[in-house]
Amino acid sequence: MRWDEQKVAGGPQELPGMPALKGLVRSVRTPEFADITFHEVRARSVLNRVPGASPMPFSWTVNPYRGCSHACTYCLAPDTPVLMVDGTSVRLADVRVGDLVVGTAMRGGVRSLVPTPVHDAWTTTKPAWRVRLVDGTTLVASADHRFLTPRGWVHVRPEGCAGTERPHLRVGDVLVGAETLADEAFRRPGSPPVAPPPPNDAPGGRAVVAVEDLGGERPLADLTTGTGDFVADGVISHNCFARNTHTYLDLDAGDDFDRQVVVKLNAPEVLARELRSPRWAREHVAMGTNTDPYQRAEGRYALMPGIIRALGGTGTPFSILTKGTLLARDLPELTAAARDVPVGVGVSLALLDPELHRRVEPGTPTPRARLDLVRRIRDAGLPCGVFVAPVLPGLTDTDEHLEALLGEIAAAGASGASVLALHLRPGTREWFHAWLAREHPELLERYAALYRRGAYVDAAYRTDLAARVRPLLERHGLTGGGHAMGGRQGYGEGIDGREGKGGWPDGSMPPPAVPEEVVTAPPEQLSLL
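Structure for Rv2578c family radical SAM protein, as requested:
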């Protein structure tokens, strides 16, 4: 069926239940992208300034798409009681941005109750499931929602993206109750007063006795908090991370973020106009550090060729970071632009094992496909840096694995490589630990020790990894760029615990190289790695 025949609406007034979307041309649904609506808009501006406090080595970005078709939504019934810092409970639907609720944080290796602010709140409509516990508690949630168990964060149902099965609730699982956690954090000077959560005296009271399909869709609600979780009807409940950027375009942060993708049809033309302004200083513009410009819909809309022409035609240096092999389509445009302006291209590649790739990075192009992309980029005469990220302790960090991977990267002709250890920020940490518990339980104790101080791997591990990686990079001629991320300002430390030259691999940034005075920035700043 033709894409043009799938038109849903011709203007915002024809989209019942949605706020007006400025600049809307039409909305389209197609069997090729099930359950997703593309809202084609005419944007006023596409050149975005990076906040001054950011450690990134660039000041401007371009994002031709908003929204994500693979996003998960962690939602509960609107009447679910949420524990506030004063000990009272408030309906989830009545919690407001700015309220202080009870969340959790790791304190000295122990999960403790802490006050946390609500950053966002929204509603959505999704299929719902009822989780019944031994003590009579019932929790109504979406299949995507996650609760904390002794084996980590688990979803209500097993269905995952691209047909994969994810960690999920089983009869007999015990949900972690707030009454079982330490609350010393509340008694620190300056902390808000809080009443302790009520005890749960029923033997095995938090054990799951049933997970029941309620049939059809129901109204659900969710929050974003500072800790990434909150206490829902006595148990620790994961929440969705920052989705409120969708609200900047008059779309809500719940269901719309998942199913309503905004496409800036006129991005190339608007960008060309903005870059022709006499005030434009021809600063470096980066693409792919927030959302991948070569996501699947780009195959239909083909916005990037015009964006590349606009940048090259105005003397603006730029870089692209991607996992998407669709970039190969635009190699002629990139080659032409590189004759006029400095261009950098980066590809992320963490491992070679196809089975481990299927389990760790489902839905992304295979390692061989990405190596071929590197080869094609270099054959076109363009630079290409490779981010070996993330290195997984105990799985992909052996000398043999790194030697083989860097050898393949070098054979593909990469300009340089940077090696980055796994970073486990809140949310990612619980998900990865749940995966370890299922796939490699023998590594749980080691990871607890390596990440006992927080999101970053232990300093001794970083030092050892850097010492082992350095001669491998030298042997394969991939030393350009170092081992850590670089930025405009001082921030964090590199893989070897030292500040110094930015570690963006050679080829990933437009030449000339990042200035020597910049220092390192943490790897999580690159959301696509």
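Residues 459-475 form the longest helix (17 residues).
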